[in-house]
Specification:
By secondary structure, this protein is an alpha/beta fold. The chain contains twelve helices and eleven strands. The chain starts with a strand and ends with a helix.
């Protein structure tokens, strides 16, 4: 049994230290992590140097430019062809104890499982009336099914990479998962949820976003994408993201072609009706 985990790092030394420490502590002895550093600052690289001899660390790649996601991921998948499972954990996420063993067991018992994930949202974001229809039982396991999971805290059968190939130009990990769902793979979050603390959520204990000034300094890329200006607006966006994932269809036909375009238009028009307000 072999599990290969990728962590891509970029600056934010203290987040990197916490996430890598936690990941190494929660990995079983048959799992190894490869760290790809996207040309971080000296402080972050100094943190990584401390882990070079850690028994759970396979290697640390100190890249000379910021290759973002697709390049490092495709390189990693190419290097881990002999692994049974591949995973990625972000440098701002803290993994829960036993996550790897639990997801491996689910994979073994659900032959068509593709990408199974840990959940990054808080208990207060859970809406049973939305999620109930998506929670399905597979023997002794339950999944909240979806056509994709987040790009951190997942465990994916290597078989799926062999089937689909690498990430395509401009393709996100969720879009890659949708391709897998179309091919017949089952994705979702293990339920009851395995909670990975996402430190870019200002509500979690280890987040550095205590004030609006902190938020401006540490503003995530997705917050910039949605023109989020304040810490409070970012929290509302995170809640909306959690509700959307619980409400959205897990039928892959709803996420490709004309049905996907129609769904996006309808959701935009009826957003306040589809998604509950706090």
């Amino acid at each position: 049994m072999t599990v290969s985990v990728l962590m891509i790092t970029y600056n934010r030394a203290e987040y990197t230290r916490l996430s890598l420490e936690t990941l190494c502590r929660t990995l079983p002895d048959y799992a190894r992590v490869t760290v790809w550093d996207n040309n971080s600052n000296a402080e972050t690289r100094a943190v990584l140097k401390e882990f070079e001899s850690h028994p759970r660390v396979a290697q640390i790649i100190y890249h000379t430019s910021n290759d973002r996601l697709r390049g490092p991921t495709n390189w990693f998948w190419e290097q881990t062809k002999s692994s049974d499972f591949v995973s990625k954990v972000d440098d701002d996420c803290l993994m829960p104890a036993g996550w790897c063993e639990t997801l491996i067991e689910a994979h073994r018992d659900i032959p068509k499982a593709g990408a199974l994930g840990c959940w990054r949202f808080l208990d207060e974001d859970f809406r049973p009336e939305l999620a109930r229809r998506k929670i399905q039982t597979f023997g002794k396991h339950q999944l909240m099914r979806n056509c994709w999971v987040e790009g951190s805290g997942y465990l994916m059968k290597r078989e799926m990479v062999d089937c689909l190939g690498p990430l395509l130009e401009g393709e996100s990990f969720p879009s890659y998962c949708i391709r897998g769902a179309v091919a017949g793979y089952i994705h979702g979050w293990y339920y009851p949820f395995l909670f990975q603390e996402h430190m870019d959520d200002p509500r979690v204990p280890h987040s550095a976003m205590k004030t609006d000034a902190d938020f401006q300094q540490l503003r995530p890329l997705s917050a910039e994408t949605f023109a989020i200006r304040t810490r409070a607006e970012w929290i509302e966006r995170l809640k909306y993201s959690a509700w959307s994932l619980q409400a959205i269809s897990f039928d892959p036909r709803d996420h490709v072609g004309w049905r996907a375009n129609l769904r996006r238009r309808v959701n935009k028009l009826l957003r306040t009706k589809l998604i509950p307000r706090a």
